[in-house]
Specification:
Elements lengths: L21 E5 L17 H8 L26 E6 L7 H17 L3 E5 L6 H6 L7 E6 L19 H6 L4 E9 L7 H10 L2 E4 H7 L2 H4 L7 E7 L21 H14 L1 E8 L10 H18 L3
Parallel strand pairs: 1-2, 1-3, 3-8, 4-5, 4-7, 5-6, 7-8
Helix pairs in contact: 1-9, 8-9
Length: 303
Amino acid sequence: MNGTSSFLQFPAHLGEGRSPRVMIFGVGHGSTYPGKDSGGYALAADAIRAASQGDAPLVEHWDFDLGGPLFDGGPACCVDLGNIETTLHENAENRARIAAKTRDVLAAGAVPILIGGDCSVTIPFLDAFGGGDPIWVVQIDAHIDWRDEIHGERYGYSSPMRRASEMAHVAGMVQVGLRSVGSARPVEVEAAWRYGSHFVTARDVHAQGVEAALRHIPNGARVVITLDCDSLDPAIMPGVAARTPGGLTYMQVIDLIAGIGKRARLAGFDLVELLPPADIDGMSALTAARIVVNTIGAIARQG
């Protein structure tokens, strides 16, 4: 982890005979477009870890976001595996490594939490859930990410939900936080609608609360959440490449995650598109770290 402490100072493994409930790992590069540099996103995982250090001594304290201590009175059940080695523009190799690490976590019976990278890392992350029970994908994002290809690259940051729709194990999709012009052309919107994706705009959430999204998720479904940091309003998450006003609040995001944890089964989570060079006074990294904490808390409370 390049000298950075682990997330909340979690160990790399638990004691003998103990199996982790959650395994965190970081990713730098996914499938980068020709002529683009994803180096800024490669800093995200360690920036989130660094931002978590203030809470590290407080894990046993009462967390008012969660209504109790992080692990709900149970033993600590989370480990941080560090970062996967990835290389700029080695797209196929990066995808293979991300998918392999995710499958390893799932085979260990744990919930994978991926931090860092741009949205392209979501594609191999979701793909790794194939071979098990079906999953629903909840994307929290300003954009729908349904481009088929850009410059010949079909696995880049504009395409994760399009690729997810082609995965046989993805049973359904809810896309939350959409707003402004976004990156979608009419043809991509129509393709998403034909697939059956449920669009929940930021305006919907502001007007109706997180139930606007939760009502589309079947009770008891296995859910993988992919959270793009630009889903949040730039007033609290400025460290993104596409700042767009009108985004979700921190409370809306954590209430959505908690609501999914109560209604369904959180099977995986990724947090992507944090761009530390665009951050202001570490505000975005701190918000991202708190969202990861809330996700761990929701998983710990699933029983």
